[in-house]
């Protein structure tokens, strides 16, 4: 379920966060599903539990998961992710990437096609 690249320059906790987000977007992890406990995931991935705790904490701060004391960590409903600051950050990053893509010569029709493909994969995506 979780594969991490220990040779990557990207920190392990960020890789874990990205993987969890990817699983949420592809609906492998659905809202209110319980995530593996820190201890179990640490044993499975053979990494320090503090690394997993850091990833979970950041995901919670970003609104992707929520914690129930004594119960564990769960996938948050998508509505709770609707945060105007987060939305503006994503739009800004997307604008930079699109500007760079156009600058290096990627055709805008190819970009539209990619957006449509991604929209079709994401639940509730608009074509």
UniProtKB/TrEMBL annotation:
<dbReference type="InterPro" id="IPR036388">
    <property type="entry name" value="WH-like_DNA-bd_sf"/>
</dbReference>
<dbReference type="GO" id="GO:0003700">
    <property type="term" value="F:DNA-binding transcription factor activity"/>
</dbReference>
<protein>
    <submittedName>
        <fullName>GntR family transcriptional regulator</fullName>
    </submittedName>
</protein>
<keyword id="KW-0804">Transcription</keyword>
<dbReference type="InterPro" id="IPR000524">
    <property type="entry name" value="Tscrpt_reg_HTH_GntR"/>
</dbReference>
<keyword id="KW-0805">Transcription regulation</keyword>
<keyword id="KW-0238">DNA-binding</keyword>
<dbReference type="Pfam" id="PF00392">
    <property type="entry name" value="GntR"/>
</dbReference>
<feature type="domain" description="HTH gntR-type">
    <location>
        <begin position="10"/>
        <end position="78"/>
    </location>
</feature>
<dbReference type="GO" id="GO:0003677">
    <property type="term" value="F:DNA binding"/>
</dbReference>
<dbReference type="InterPro" id="IPR036390">
    <property type="entry name" value="WH_DNA-bd_sf"/>
</dbReference>
């Amino acid at each position: 379920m979780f594969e991490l690249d220990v040779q990557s320059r990207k920190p392990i906790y960020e890789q874990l966060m990205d993987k969890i987000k990817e699983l949420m977007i592809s609906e492998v992890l659905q809202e209110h599903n319980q995530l593996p406990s820190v201890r179990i995931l640490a044993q499975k991935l053979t990494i320090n539990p503090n690394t997993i705790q850091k990833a979970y904490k950041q995901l919670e701060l970003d609104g992707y998961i929520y914690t129930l004391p004594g119960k564990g960590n769960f996938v948050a409903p998508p509505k709770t992710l609707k945060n105007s600051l987060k939305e503006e950050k994503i739009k800004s990053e997307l604008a930079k990437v699109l500007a760079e893509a156009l600058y290096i010569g990627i055709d805008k029709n190819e970009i539209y096609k990619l957006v449509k493909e991604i929209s079709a994969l994401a639940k509730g995506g608009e074509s």
